[in-house]
Design brief:
Layout lengths: L7 H48 L1 E3 L20 E8 L15 E9 L6 E6 L4 E4 L2 E2 L5 E2 L2 E4 L2 H19 L5 E6 H10 L3 E5 L3 E3 L4 E3 L2 E5 L1 H9 L9 H20 L2 H4 L2 H13 L1 E4 L5 H14 L4 E5 L2 E3 L7 E3 L3 H9 L24 H4 L20 H20 L5
Parallel strand pairs: 1-14, 2-9, 4-15
Antiparallel strand pairs: 2-3, 3-4, 5-8, 6-7, 9-14, 10-13, 11-12, 16-17
Helix pairs in contact: 1-7, 3-4, 3-7
Family: Belongs to the LytR/CpsA/Psr (LCP) family.
Protein name: Cell envelope-related function transcriptional attenuator common domain-containing protein
Pfam family, one: LytR_cpsA_psr
Length: about 400
């Protein structure tokens, strides 16, 4: 007992209560602080999500009733066919010497049902096709007839383009995306530029475009110039070369976007997503951010080695050498897409983001047998190359390099 008559043990039991109370108050404040921080973060994420989703312009096009049936194929998911169009519509300006309101870039993007391969097939704007009847922008019906492919977009917008692609391919389009080329510049800037290789100096006096020769990083307007230039290259058909450069640039940009430098940088990733969604017009079923995220995730899971970009087989249109028409081989390519098959021989000259020029494709992109893992017991020895085979390979490589140079690409 102390001098006041209170037991010492009773005094000692009071002090721990005060200590626990102080710690409890501190923990409560910390918990409240974390809660406030969590609410701020959640609020920011919700705001960001809503902002990105609200950036997307959604429309409900009239695609008509006479559409190809969806072919049933085996796989954990349904195949996905997305028609991607590049347009100058929103800018209202003349870019690179092109007339506003035209779609100069059209690509059919196909993802397989097993999500193991994807490929984009470019359609030349100068392709002569049988366009079906379409609702025009002025509300009047555009009669069916033979016309240049990109006239479908000029006269009837995305709806007429989808109808035309479905008519000539017999492939049902699940969704479409229109990318505003003026906003494309912001997408390139958001990832801090994309590296390109220009084999020869480009001096396009018609589009007022100049590109020096060499390998370097392009940003903004210069990137737009690279994918739009058609003149000043000494090419007989500038549109085909331009499509190949667009494919090469898209492949390089896909690789840049899925790289650690972008995905691991929240600010850079947000800027890219903000620029991308601000540049998009889609059908209403594809206007939700989760749908676009799902598409991006699928492409990332497929892997860069199994994403291929090709141009539909085409040939000169006899009545007008400045126009093109589908080659007979195109029918086989459309069947590959319709029945969800690998590209096979159609992927021999494909541009693949994860593959070096001249490197053989994997089975995911082309359907070719894949090699056994190096060093495995079951690996068979490589057959001896005959002189004729070596000569054929050398000729094929020379042809590939020449085709790349003709398209304004480095071999």
């Amino acid at each position: 007992m102390n001098s006041g008559g209170t037991p010492v043990s009773d005094v000692e039991t009071v002090r721990p209560e005060k200590g626990r109370s102080r710690r409890r108050r501190i923990l409560t404040r910390v918990a409240i602080g974390f809660l406030v921080l969590a609410l701020v973060v959640v609020g920011f994420l919700v705001f960001t999500y809503n902002k990105l989703e609200n950036n997307i312009n959604a429309i409900a096009p009239d695609l008509g009733d006479n559409r190809p049936a969806q072919v049933e194929v085996e796989g954990p998911e349904e195949p996905l066919n997305v028609l991607v169009m590049g347009s100058d519509d929103r800018s209202g300006t003349d870019i690179g010497g092109e007339t506003p309101g035209l779609s100069d870039t059209t690509m059919l993007l196909h993802l397989s049902a097993d999500r193991r391969r994807a490929y984009g097939v470019s359609l030349p704007r100068d392709l002569m096709v049988q366009r079906p009847a379409c609702p025009g922008k002025n509300g009047k019906t555009i009669p069916a007839g033979l016309t240049q492919f990109n006239e479908a977009y000029a006269d009837g917008g995305p709806a007429c383009t989808v109808r035309t692609v479905e008519a000539i391919t017999k492939v049902r389009i699940d969704h479409f995306v229109v990318i505003n080329f003026a906003g494309f510049k912001d997408m390139v800037n958001a990832v801090d530029g994309v590296k390109v290789c220009v084999p020869n100096e480009v001096n396009d006096t018609i589009g007022n475009i100049y590109l020096p020769a060499g390998t370097y990083k392009v940003n903004g307007n210069q990137a737009l110039d690279y994918v739009r230039v058609r003149h000043g290259l000494g090419l007989e058909n500038g549109d085909i070369g331009r499509m190949k450069r667009q494919q090469a640039f898209i492949a390089a940009m896909v690789a840049k976007v899925v790289s650690r430098g972008t995905l691991a940088n929240p600010l850079r990733l947000y800027r890219f997503l903000d620029a991308a969604t601000s540049s998009l017009t889609t059908d209403r079923g594809f206007a939700k951010l989760r749908e676009l995220v799902s598409l991006g995730t699928s492409l990332q899971d497929i892997g860069l080695d199994n994403i291929a970009f090709v141009t539909v087989p085409n040939e000169e249109y006899q009545p007008d050498p400045n126009r093109l028409q589908l080659a007979p081989e195109a029918t086989g390519l459309w069947r590959k897409i319709r029945f969800d098959k690998a590209l096979g021989s159609y992927g021999a000259d494909a541009l693949v983001p994860g593959r070096k020029p001249g490197e053989l494709p994997t089975d995911g992109a082309s359907g070719s047998p894949s090699a056994s893992p190096s060093g495995s017991a079951s690996a068979s020895p490589s057959p001896t190359t005959t002189p004729d085979q070596a000569a054929a390979r050398a000729a094929a490589e020379a042809a590939r390099k020449q085709a790349a140079e003709d398209a304004g690409l480095c071999a």
